[in-house]
């Protein structure tokens, strides 16, 4: 019969990727796609590039109690409320793609996002970066942010081994425009973005992007880690992210050594690959891959890490389906084989 | 009567910008445009976007002894030989846009480019970043590299004031494809570049780009400066560069203080401007501007500097004409008013 | 002292081009820039790529009675009202960049745009395509639409000579996104436009774009012309337009003959040029040029015309300034020399 | 055991798509990928975006006699020779992606491409546009050109029904740069293509593109068809094609009628779909779809047809695999399910 799956927030860029991936997933029996903004419209009217034949439902129309799995792609705050309702309705597995369950501490959450709407669930959430933190065990997965996915994959093996020796971490991040969401704004107007690149997330002369605490907290689970400086830039491309990460430490390993760590830590995981050559965004776009590389500036005593992902796939919907696969005991790439 | 001006290497992207700028310069009386590759072809046949009516000459056809000013836009090595000949022929001012006279020391040059073809002229060359090193005085100007132009403008006021206190400098640089030259290659094929971003200049696991020593040496003229880590990336845009520079030091000034330094040091220069808001490449593309900004990550003790230029204008041909203006006593923006 | 000039609607893409061009125009003494949406904000805060130092005024703040020249870049309907007020206030020359005075007949206007707000002025308006209809004589210029500028320049010499013999005209038009205006919408979101091309202006299975009647009516002034089929497409570029026009007629001239007609009709006009080679958008972007070419499919009995302009310059702001120059007796390219 | 499949010319853009598609095809048991230019290099070194682990072979290294199916993606002329050898070696099915077997008449071939190297095979070739000409029957498939795929799909139902009534057909075609091949040239340099659009295929004042006779001949198989005017344009996108086709006829049907013809003729075929809304390139990019639509300009008596495909998939490699599937009796979308 297959799984009964619901998507909440199916009208955004991440939502529509979920529609595509789950629509072709061999274990999915039925798929309900809800969107508050598009309820009643045919999916392929809103996204003509999607083959799906169905209609967007109003979230209230979906019988949550009949769902095996739910994916929630709402904005922060709204997501947590929806997740609570779904868990109460007895949904077996909820994968939340918002930021609501990524920060394990309600006080830290408050500082960056405001009051947490469902703090009692924070302890249950599994941070869904399986190559670092393992397959999800419980009923709630906090799907990582796109930038943290790339950053933590590149940094985890380093922090594990070099721990307290790391003095400084700076992440220079470059992202395609789909990362800014489907809502039209002056900032995402074609003419604003095209033939340009712009740093963002700098407020009052200070870099302050919400993915910073997510990266720091997750790295601190793995070893001693310094504050992370995170500077994102908007690129004139639709999808994909590249991070060039600078690590300063007393003792700097060689690049081959770092590649060895990557290969060791990610052995057996099919979507993460370290190579000698630096990754380009085109090497990962439209796939669920993460590609990693490393270099060393010996004169300056710095380690350079390079990581690339597709922000909508490995950085969002692809990783979410991978998390569902792992949580339910399927191969991690089930239904994602063409995105390896 | 106006100046008699020659352009050598007028067939590349920088060369054709020189053609445009000098063709409209009010003090230029006659303009000879030479190109080894395109000799005999009409300029507007090779570059239909150029209004110029003339033909590319063979360099040997140009009577150098009749030139007041020559611009040389050859590759390194070849440029130095041409410059020597032009100076011997009595040209009053030679602006060299290659790397040949940027590094003042033949030994350093050898390490990065090979044997220097005209070491006896190295002592004569004025490094043509006038906002930092003043108006050119002699007969030979070494026009700065595009990346160094942005980097030194952003870093000079910092190094001057924070000198020995600066522990670490990392330059994350992003450039449009015209910076890679007009020669077709797999790397500059539209399909390779489009919808991607790629780090480059990493060889054998080490960042090694030739603009690194240029930046370091020029900064060391201004104060104590640590080794510079320089990581360039290729962007899917035609022109423009953005550098996000991370400076670590014991004592970090506030962003307003750094903006104050910029305003102080660049007062009276019309093409360099510091603003509170971060620069985008679109703010400077198709102009001779440099735009600067600063931010501070207090938690991590890092100063962030942002600099943007158009690599073909302020980073090459525009700066070259500005240097000519200053060397000959004209206003720095003569013929460049529409590029302010 | 210079001219006192006002810009109404200075906050859109066309408006900001006017700010740039008029800000550097040698005969402009004072420039008031009004914008209903941006009043009170600094121009360079809204458009950081503009060097201008001033502030957007509220239209009501501008003393129209003191203006020599006014440019109106409002939407249709609103523009006509503003123009009436300006003329009543005694402004010497009003250049209207909306569609309000392009169609000479209020009944035709009603069919495409609604009731005309100032029909009494229709008779006064000079259609400002000077290379076809001569220099403006009166106090009101209707600046042509961007598509009609290219189309009429390409077709006028043909209609004049082949008149009744022309059986069919189809215009396949391609435009950059700035032609759709600065207002954010799903259609102008970067991700919608990028890596795509889309036909538009098709409603209910019928091509219906408002530039169609403008083109037809202006051609009919020059000779007998059939109904024009006009199919616009949105391109993933910021600026520039290309039209590929198919003309069917009993007798088809050779391409050289058509080029000869172009050269004859546009002799003495500096911004229009016919060449044997087909124009690319890059040949005209960021200039006030129109480039034309012609080819012939003898087997099929069709004449192909190619025309390219920059939609914001020759197709809007550049042409508007050219019209002001001509109306006031200046050289047509005054202040536009760098855009030839 | 699965099919033994060979790819000849696996180093170009079409070749690498074949590698991807056949590498994931469930009936392919072994895959030999040959490339004269890249022999000995790992595939993923040349195309790091490809997951495939193997090496490019020299064509001579492949034991053709052991192949069930061969795909040939060479240039015209070279392809025919290779095909002859493969058929002689006993390969069960050869899918040729060059132009060599698309034109059924050696005299027509000579006019456009030169002397045909294997005219004796022309009669055997099945033109592989299955939705129009049915599933391939024999051992040689001539895979259609990318432009003809879109054009014939849009025009076939019209020519079948309106036959002799059609007076004129003009195809305005827009293509991404991958259609021009992977070989670097000034024309495919990023800076040449970016922010521009250029008509091409015009020689000596006449449109002459090799896909013209292919389209005409195939249409003539379906009914009476006039000469076709074909004007291609190069777009600043990587992949995808859009054709806007103008048909003039005495009697023009309504758009719904044409959509009805499309639905009737393409019923049961999964990759071709007609919709009321006009297709955008983004609706088909990275898929094996063709999307069709129609509009009518009643005033001018013209029918407008719109067709979009991905030039590398439905216009090349995807269609080739679809042809293999049909020739061997598999479902047409086997291994292509994610590209529907």
UniProtKB/TrEMBL annotation, chains A, B, C, D:
Its EC number is 1.2.1.38. Pfam families: Semialdhyde_dh (PF01118), Semialdhyde_dhC_1 (PF22698). Residues 4-139 form the Semialdehyde dehydrogenase NAD-binding domain. It is an enzyme of class 1 (oxidoreductase). GO terms for cellular component: cytoplasm. GO terms for molecular function: N-acetyl-gamma-glutamyl-phosphate reductase activity; NAD binding; NADP+ binding. Pathway: Amino-acid biosynthesis; L-arginine biosynthesis; N(2)-acetyl-L-ornithine from L-glutamate: step 3/4. Keywords: Amino-acid biosynthesis, Arginine biosynthesis, Cytoplasm, NADP, Oxidoreductase. The keyword Acyltransferase does not apply. It is found in: Cytoplasm. It catalyses: N-acetyl-L-glutamate 5-semialdehyde + phosphate + NADP(+) = N-acetyl-L-glutamyl 5-phosphate + NADPH + H(+). The active site is at 146. Signal peptide: none annotated. GO terms for biological process: L-arginine biosynthetic process. InterPro entries: AGPR, AGPR_AS, AGPR_dimerisation_dom, AGPR_type-1, NAD(P)-bd_dom_sf, Semialdehyde_DH_NAD-bd. Its main location: cytoplasm. HAMAP family: ArgC_type1. Catalyzes the NADPH-dependent reduction of N-acetyl-5-glutamyl phosphate to yield N-acetyl-L-glutamate 5-semialdehyde. Belongs to the NAGSA dehydrogenase family. Type 1 subfamily. This is N-acetyl-gamma-glutamyl-phosphate reductase. It comes from Rubrobacter xylanophilus.
